[in-house]
Amino acid sequence: MDNKYHMNGGDDLKSYAKNSEYQKQLLGYSKKVMNELIQQQLDVGLNPHFDHCNPFRIADFGCSTGRNTYLAAQNIIEAVEQKYKSNEEDPQVPEFLVFFNDLVQNDFNTLFNYIHSNKPNYFGAGVPGSFHGRVFPKAFLHIAHSSMALLYLSRIPEEVKDRNSAAWNKGRIHYSCSGAAKEVEAAYSTQFRKDIEAFLDARAEELIPGGLMVIITLGILDGVLPSECSMGVNFSILGSCLEDMAKMGIISEEKLDSFNLPYYYTSHMELETLIKAHGCFDIARFEKLPTPFRQVVHDIQTVVLSIRAVTEGLFEEHFGKDVIEELFQRYAEKVGSHPVLYDDKYRTEASYFVFLKRKTDTSKPGT
Amino acid sequence: MDNKYHMNGGDDLKSYAKNSEYQKQLLGYSKKVMNELIQQQLDVGLNPHFDHCNPFRIADFGCSTGRNTYLAAQNIIEAVEQKYKSNEEDPQVPEFLVFFNDLVQNDFNTLFNYIHSNKPNYFGAGVPGSFHGRVFPKAFLHIAHSSMALLYLSRIPEEVKDRNSAAWNKGRIHYSCSGAAKEVEAAYSTQFRKDIEAFLDARAEELIPGGLMVIITLGILDGVLPSECSMGVNFSILGSCLEDMAKMGIISEEKLDSFNLPYYYTSHMELETLIKAHGCFDIARFEKLPTPFRQVVHDIQTVVLSIRAVTEGLFEEHFGKDVIEELFQRYAEKVGSHPVLYDDKYRTEASYFVFLKRKTDTSKPGT
Predict the structure, then answer these.
(1) pLDDT category, B1, cuts 50, 70, 90?
(2) pTM for this structure?
(3) Chain B interface mutation, best of A56, A77, A109, A141, highest count of B Cβ atoms under 10 Å
(4) Keywords for this entry (chains A, B) (predicted)?
């Protein structure tokens, strides 16, 4: 795996911890529907894996430094407790063990401090490692959860950095940047397919038969052009700032050409097709969540900080620490006068809520 | 819990990671005897908790940043695999899940990087929290392990810091310092008893009936005076350096009087008595390990760094960052001319290896 990126650690103004309000709102929207689905789908009293299990095991994949993960775990536990208590024949509630997974480079120290300071009513553990591979034993987890993590690709497709390929993304930093060839998007899409397959393969092994999985991810509406979404506009602006800096000799052109952001914004149709093709999970629900409230023009700083919390590590690793302040200053200046900040026509990204159930036939279809 | 101390993080010259050779040697000595005992005591084929368990769950309590913990986990897994393979009726080996526990202030980022870089053949997880309380669900662990961690008290007994108490330890930093009243040692001993009881209470709940626990701890030989051990001499010297600094006004006398090191060096007799009185564990083995090779005069720096790796955080928290370099420079000067570095008469500390088995009657006797 090439992926080494992670959110900004710590908890200062530039940290992911302080800049993940958007993600927090999404969890709020999903709480009610998740609870309903857990009541419907969790086979307490029907599946021996759930009866007298001790402890009930939950894992969050891509936890970062924990604020939203903590909330998500609380929401899941609340729903599971309710389900157990409603089983009249045996209303006993198990103990809970919650695993927080992210890449080994994630700031687990900050995560643990945060979780600990909240005195959770469950046992907690951190699990470092890429969720594109196995990080848990077989048939070990009862519920898996992943919020805003699957849009991170495990690697940048090679073709995008290859000057001899039709997918070479010269002078741009993402497939959504204005003017990018359609082959660039296709290369990203292929990588996303491989990543989703690897993710589902691993979770299919780790979840018990009948285990549940909640996925929340950021994508775009079906049929929308990536370059016309707000993220496409933002990445185009960030890219143009880097182009300006390359022209001034602050960074080299080669550096710019070899850099691409590892995000992929899937559509409802694409993700649903991939999950169905995989075959190990039944889709109990697939829906678009309401769009979170976003700060507008009067608070450009918040917009800049939230983009910075997620991307800074990537820019820093590739271009070096010295250019970061200048890059985000230039970005703040350019984005401040752009209609993307207030015009709804750019708001074509979509947050998807997906609720899956591990089929009880534990062999993978077609293998 | 008051305990917030932890080993020096990171992996530079002053880190615990680079200064734990002594502990590593102890694990080497214990490997053979531990393997023998696991073959004897692990009830594979006899206890349903071990049959087709998935995964086999091991926890290390007080893992610090991981070098020795990693070795210990390898040794345990090797022995358990051997035991499973020797079960002719069902030689299948389970997957392993190893939990690394330490205080929430421990440097888990360094731990995870180290474990990850060694590509272990097991699943790993970090569990933050004091091992003087519950950190795992009930009847969850198959084997618990703790090396060189139980000598850290959860808190300094109040009397030791109380000027109206006979146990007030004025001008000294430990009960082993030359001239300390016997009431000081008694107060430490009482705290140690409470801590061991809390540790055994928690592990008795977390281990399955028939689960095993390996404890390695540093103590002293039965009947030896603490002030005549090498650690007593070392702490007396460190204390006298602080006294010198108090006289020069570099630190205040009040600061010195309110500082005490939270270590307790138990004896064979004391620890065995406490475990028996607790009642939840059978003692399968209690023995003194060979004394690790120690660096002598020609390498004072190693001695200083190894004491510093363990104590620096405590001194820094109480006296502030500014005095640390001076304190250890003064210590290096004084200890360099002291016979403790080469005279065997001071080597009366002892490392104890204790192998316990959770009784299958899971209620605590007398409760």
Answers:
(1) very low
(2) 0.90
(3) A109
(4) Magnesium, Metal-binding, Methyltransferase, Transferase
